[in-house]
Fold each of these.
Amino acid sequence: MPTIAELQPFVWPAVITLALVVVLLLLPPIKRVLDRLARDGGKITSRGIELPEGRSQQPVDRLPKVESVNWPDLLALPIVRSLADRIRDDADKQNIPKEERERLLTLMIARERLDKEHLLTHRIIFGSQISFLMEILPFGRVNIDQARHFFDRAVIEYPDIHKSSMFEDWLRFLVTRAFVKIENEFVVAETDNIQDFFGCLVRERLTHTKIG
């Protein structure tokens, strides 16, 4: 059996060969990350890779849609069936009539889909838009010049994010998400929708300040 001294000349060549193999394997994903950083204006810091949060807000005509429910796939999952059995048992224990169960089930599905929409919106909304919604909520409406003030302030605070942004697109995003509507020279709050959005953020503990 070879001794350690006899094997020593072969150690470093083996280590170097292994390192080259690892580099070749990691090169494609590293290149993809660097390409994305260059495209989106991100940077590598001591905390890791950071991308400008505001760049995730897509044009309002290309917003991703929440997927429709795929019932066969949903029902095929054992964990879903197990939870359904538990819910059915709870309903039996509480003597909830079958017709009432259908109504409650429909409401639960509606709640889940609405929360998905809210979470998607939170991913792409700018902090200045959230601030504006908080401002308009108590009053119900503000004039468009007041809304423009929030956008102008965001442009000053985050020039890199908003250097190619327009106020009309900033406001249209809130309209397409059904948070506000435009009436003459006023921006009118869709109060129920805004409150439900904020309620979802509180439940999901997403109340931290966003940039943009």
Amino acid sequence: MPNFRHILVLFLVCADSANAAPPPEVSTPFEAISSALPQFRWRPESQLTVDINADGQRDWAFFGTTETTGAVGVVVGGEGPISKRTRYLDFMLSNSHQRGICGRFQELRLSPQDAEAKFEGLGARPEGWKGCAKCFEIEVVTDVECDPLHVYWNHDRQSLGWWRN
């Protein structure tokens, strides 16, 4: 026979969760990236508007950091919950790693994604990279001379990808 106290506790827990306030709606892309990925300190001044996945809708890119990593985060335009439309790639803050951001972050910059000639030194183009007149990738620009990181939309995986020389 069920214990009356257990039933009462279960009822109160269910009633309390039913009355819980829904998560607050976000009104800007910066609020969206900040609430979806709170582990990073996102920089509002880094905001870049781009159609990174070439779907005809506006997307927003940001740069954020933790103590040891830098990240490029993108809020993809469209319908659905922000958590399903937020993507990011993180990189070490290091001058000595291929997947590292060398120097201090300066800005995110758009780069046309229209020619495969830039991959001659790599031997092959990155997975899912698509060249087209309306396609853009994001360069992470720093204050030192080094090969920049390029963040692009991987059309094969429907996610972000990256490359550097």
Amino acid sequence: MTDLRTLFVALIALLCTAQPAHAAYQPDCTSRTYTVSYTDNAFKVASMTATKTLFSLTSNRVKLCGASMDPRTAFADASLSGVVCSLGSATSGNSAIYLPALNVMQTTMSASQGGLFGGKDLATPDTNLAVVLTCTATGANFGSGSATALTAGKLWITVSTSTLPPGS
């Protein structure tokens, strides 16, 4: 799985050096990996939907050049029959604009996107600059409001961004 992750990071780097929509500009992509564990406060909610803001883009010129979601430890709880997570913004209807829902109750799959997303960023589909992980449970709530019901789970989310020059 480590080799697959290394290959994906190399692919992101290659895609970020490809000719962008802004012909005179070659973006420099910066990647950061976020680890979300089952013990995170987001999963204490007495709800079947949990959201966690990973970060906020600093301006409308910041573009996503790639994203990946990699379940490292399967999410588990005896009362849950399913957990899926997606990456998008906090705006209703845009919870999966970057990565579609992925089953995180198994570790055999991962989701990834590369390239400049056709210039798509959080300022294009909506004006919300927050990059948000949204997870949905089937069968029970994630928690009681003060404690999580989950007994296991760890998810890596790697997001690569590039900042366009002023006037772009």
